[in-house]
Design goal:
By secondary structure, this protein is an alpha+beta fold. It has 2 domains: 32 residues; 105 residues, Immunoglobulin-like (Sandwich). The protein is built from 4 helices and 9 strands, in the order ααβαββββββββα. InterPro entries: DUF6130. Keywords: Signal.
């Protein structure tokens, strides 16, 4: 019975599709489906905001720093350059600075920031939410301590 249903089904579907298409002749996709799912925003977007959690306690006790974050009013995407500023809703990425060093790295994965191999002691990580041209939009800094006994074992 199932095999007959599978053989008959495409024929019924094809006939129904042709009848439906004939009734809609001359109508545009917008006429049938309504407005596009992605449309230009009618009012300015609210400011992008960064939320950063303290490092997860379990991994930190073992010397690994896992910092979870999320962005509000911005999607983390690996798209860069001035043309990407036109995308709505807005997109961007993060920059990560460890212990105030002059160097940093950019990340567009949306995954937690993970650091291993830091020496024992107090550290701080600044996460900067940036637009596709690397312009900072918001930032948060977390401070934590890598335990002494863990650093010595690395």
């Amino acid at each position: 019975m199932l095999s007959k249903l599978i053989l008959i089904s495409p024929i019924l579907f094809s006939s129904a599709t042709c009848a439906w298409a004939a009734e809609l002749g001359g109508l545009s996709a917008g006429d049938v489906l309504g407005p596009a799912a992605v449309a230009p925003l009618e009012k300015p977007q609210p400011p992008a905001r960064l939320i950063v959690d303290a490092p997860l306690a379990g991994p930190l006790r073992k010397g690994a720093v896992f910092i979870q974050y999320r962005a509000e009013n911005l999607r983390i995407e690996p798209v860069f350059g001035p043309e990407a500023l036109k995308v709505t809703p807005r997109i961007g990425h993060i920059h990560v600075v460890v212990d105030g060093n002059p160097w940093h790295w950019a990340d567009a994965s949306g995954e937690p920031v993970i650091l291993v191999g830091l020496p024992a002691g107090k550290h701080k990580v600044t996460i900067i939410l940036a637009d596709p041209t690397h312009k900072p939009l918001d930032s948060k800094t977390v401070e934590f301590i890598v335990p002494e006994h863990v650093a010595a074992s690395h």
